[in-house]
Specification:
By secondary structure, this protein is of the alpha+beta class. It is built from six helices and five strands, in the order ββαβααββααα. Helix 1 crosses helix 3, helix 2 crosses helix 3 and helix 5 packs across helix 6. The N terminus is likely disordered.
Length: about 170
């Protein structure tokens, strides 16, 4: 990359790990600290999947994401509402009037348009190819085993077994 003084600097990707009590976050950042993840594609896919069967309002989408991920994903209101506004502007979702006798009639429900449903199908087709979940999960597990040690890794595997297979 060339900057104003003609000096050539290389952008180098660095994998960073952030640990919280329940979460591990992987981020690719460059030397200047810019996040290189393209999370808007993942968020779009997630929101479309949640709206596939029924229209939903913003806070409901946030709660569903948190519930379905057992609290591991906690998107901010600004992230979700900003995405809804962008997706509506692109014609993939639209505001839906549900005609419900809801005491909070100020809620704005959003549903997929025909174009949004087509985009959801396209995203599903690309999911396996681009996200490659098996490699992502295995890679994270190898990193965790290395960082946490064999005993902690075995505890993790037991928890996974209890959570998903019992």
């Amino acid at each position: 990359m060339m900057y104003g003084d003609g000096e050539r600097t290389e952008t180098k990707k660095i994998l960073t790990l952030s640990f919280t009590e329940r979460n591990i976050t992987l981020r690719n950042i460059n030397r200047r600290g810019v996040d290189l993840r393209k999370t808007h594609g993942f968020l779009k896919f997630l929101l479309f999947s949640l709206m596939e069967d029924q229209p939903r309002y913003g806070y409901e989408l946030i709660q569903k994401i948190e519930d379905e991920s057992e609290g591991y994903l906690q998107p901010g209101q600004g992230t979700v509402y900003g995405a809804l506004e962008r997706l509506e502007g692109e014609g993939w979702i639209e505001e839906v009037d549900l005609d419900e006798d809801d005491e909070d009639s100020s809620r704005q429900y959003y549903g997929l348009t025909g174009e949004g449903r087509e985009e959801l199908e396209r995203l599903r087709g690309k999911c396996e190819e681009e996200i490659n979940p098996v490699d992502q999960i295995l890679g994270l597990m190898y990193i965790y085993r290395f960082l946490a040690g064999k005993e902690e890794f075995e505890v993790l595997l037991e928890e996974i077994g209890e959570e998903f297979f019992d």
